[in-house]
Amino acid sequence: MLIENERTRVTQWYFPKRGDNTGWHRHAYDYVVVPIQDGVLEIRDANGAITRSELKAGVPYFRDLGVEHDVLSGNDFGFAFIEVEFLQNASQ
């Protein structure tokens, strides 16, 4: 955890080796992922299907709350990304 306050939670995830994972989880908030380096993540959905995502350093992506998945490293090297969760809507 890098930052946590009433509006935002910022977490750095690090996978030392291929196959390391976040564990199954469901996102309770909208979030943005910012890769720290180029690499591959394998996303396992609730049905067991795996999607391979190629990420580029500094190129973020946004996801809505409710996503349920397990995120696995598809890299033969240590890989990290930053996750920013929006704990409140702008209107709150």
UniProtKB/TrEMBL annotation:
Name the InterPro entries on file.
RmlC-like_jellyroll (IPR014710), RmlC_Cupin_sf (IPR011051)
Q: Give the protein name, as stated in the record.
A: Cupin
